[in-house]
Write a sequence for this structure.
């Protein structure tokens, strides 16, 4: 079972989530501050971080940025304000998903499994390594390189790129991408898609504002090039 680091300052929420996940077999370590959570990262070596957005001192966005400086560890934000601007900032900082509190343990675990789930098959007899312009996408090793240099992608970024590139020129709506990449079946939040696209463009495009690989069709969604 995935090892989970929970960074949450509210004792009742922290204890409730810890207890619920432990009952389902997870090993969980909790921290009340961003600084304490970062200190636990190297010691605990979690598979995923559950990160409260509103933390005292170093807030969740700052913690997310610090983690992303040298790690692509999956991050799910916890927030009490699902429509708050800070959610978008957190997603831009590198979070893979977010959950609005309060949330049942089964919902949290389902999101954890969705973020961690690997794509099992490249599918359709496709070659293990595909070349799209300067991009090399290894569907077996789940790695991406640009001009021979490895590109570090967070789980949601990798899954999005794999899904789009599996059907070049096909247009996918935001809702379709939410269902296939994030496994949000109903009333998904398009901000997850848009923030992930922007992060991915910053990593694989020469000029993110004029993308070659991930193109926007206004009113429809996104498709994979390259131009």
């Amino acid at each position: 079972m995935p090892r989970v680091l929970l960074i949450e300052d509210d004792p009742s929420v922290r204890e409730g989530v810890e207890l619920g996940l432990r009952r389902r077999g997870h090993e969980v370590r909790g921290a009340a501050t961003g600084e304490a959570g970062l200190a636990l990262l190297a010691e605990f070596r979690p598979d995923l971080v559950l990160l409260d957005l509103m933390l005292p001192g170093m807030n969740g966005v700052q913690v997310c940025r610090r983690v992303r400086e040298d790690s692509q560890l999956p991050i799910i934000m916890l927030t009490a304000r699902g429509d708050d601007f800070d959610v978008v900032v957190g997603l831009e900082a590198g979070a893979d998903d977010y959950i609005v509190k309060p949330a049942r343990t089964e919902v949290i675990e389902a999101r954890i499994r969705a973020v961690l789930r690997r794509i099992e098959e490249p599918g359709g007899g496709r070659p293990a390594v595909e070349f799209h312009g300067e991009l090399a996408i290894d569907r077996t090793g789940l790695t991406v390189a640009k001009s021979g240099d490895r590109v570090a992608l967070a789980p949601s970024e990798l899954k999005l790129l794999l899904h789009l590139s599996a059907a070049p020129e096909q247009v996918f709506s935001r809702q379709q991408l939410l269902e296939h990449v994030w496994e949000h079946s109903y009333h998904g939040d398009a901000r997850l898609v848009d923030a992930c696209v922007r992060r991915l463009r910053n990593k694989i495009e020469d000029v993110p504002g004029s993308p070659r690989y991930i193109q926007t069709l206004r009113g429809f969604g996104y498709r994979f090039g390259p131009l």
